[in-house]
Fold:
Amino acid sequence: MAQPRRARRSQLSVPGSSEKMLEKAARSAADHVFCDLEDAVAPSAKVDARGKVAWALNNLDWGKKTRCVRINDVTTEWCHDDIITVVEQASANLDTIMLPKPYSAADVIFLDRMLGQLEKKLKLDRRIGIEVLIEEVQALQNVEEIARSSDRLECLIFGMGDYSGSQGIDTSEIGGTGGYPGDIFHYARFRITMAARAMGLDAVDGPYANFKNEAGYRSEAARAKALGMIGKWAIHPSQIAPALEVFSPALEDVARARRMESSYRDAEARDWAPCRLTE
Structure:
């Protein structure tokens, strides 16, 4: 089944427990927002945050944004009710659910089947997509299996923060130019992007913690783009504009591509297939 194409150049993270920040996120320039029920919400606030997120999805003007909710992972006591509450209360205004910390395809299949059951129960006429965070060494080992696990799957995201802890990497190396020669996350980014592209999925880069360092953020975004990723997280509104700029094609490149397409269509109409198209 062909997946819907959604904008993910800038994926803005917003705590699901804060009405004020949810309102700001809806007004932002990000083309993708995920309302977070996981790391950005304290355990004591997780249950209450579900209702706040559902209210925000149903009542705020999100424009053309991709609307996503990051639930808690499948090993927690919150995951099951996160899915049920958000889908039952806000399914008409929910595009995707983001699953953190899967270890294998089985974790994605669990979410897929829960969504299938709820869609039948609620008689929904639209499917809810899945986005997956690759943030454990086991997930990277199983990334090809995960990428094939569900026809709801739309996006693989590299969560380098938790991945660093999983592999024992010093988090100060994120975006750094320290002792390791080159990009310490090159292999993980490359492998995630290759697995995503092979299945027709989007690949997105994860967070850059120092939101005051725009140059560092841009450098990491450029590395991700060079490998074929189509967007990057923004953990602060100041990171939205750089992500949109880095992951948007230049106007001259768009114009050139359109000229080439036009030339090719013209050649097809003449029943002639040129070996090399020129401008």
Summary: The two ends are 35 Å apart (CA to CA). Residues 34 and 68 are 4 Å apart (CA to CA).
